[in-house]
Amino acid sequence: MTMAERLADGSIVVLFDLAADASSSWRTFSNLISMDEQGHTRWTAAPPDSHADAFVAIVSTDPFIAQSFSGYRCTLDPDTGEILHREFTK
Fold first, then answer.
1. Buried b vs exposed e over 52-80: b needs ≥16 C-beta within 10 Å?
2. Residue-wise pLDDT tens digits, 45-58
3. Which has more pLDDT, 9 or 76?
4. Which of left, alpha, beta for 81 (phi over 0: left; psi -120 to 50: alpha)?
5. Which residues contact 56 (CB under 8 A, 6 or more apart)?
6. Smallest Cα–Cα separation from 3: which of 17, 19, 20, 23?
7. Helix-strand-coil percent breakdown of the chain, rounded to 5?
8. Spatial distance between the Cα atoms of 13 and 3, rounded to a whole number of angstroms
9. Do the Cβ atoms of 65 and 72 come closer than 8 Å?
10. Residue 20 DSSP SS3
11. pLDDT digits (tens, 9 = 90+) for 8-42
């Protein structure tokens, strides 16, 4: 299931479901994006682990926090998608 949340600045963050990826092999999947109100992509967040990772949940929008498959809880900059802080939770 794809998930979308609106941030305070009016932009929308979209988390694409891993099951929607047609690839048959597990790999790093950049599935968290931000779009402006016209539908233009502002940024695509890189997963916190470069070895077969993706985001699986948006935990909070203020602050903007997302959880990754590999077990990282990441605080992201809502303007750039850059990971500001990550904490391993598994």
1. ebbbbebeeeeebbbbbbbebbbbbebee
2. 999 987 889 999 99
3. 76
4. left
5. 15, 18, 67, 68, 69
6. 17
7. 5, 45, 50
8. 8
9. no
10. helix
11. 888 999 999 876 655 556 678 899 999 998 999 99
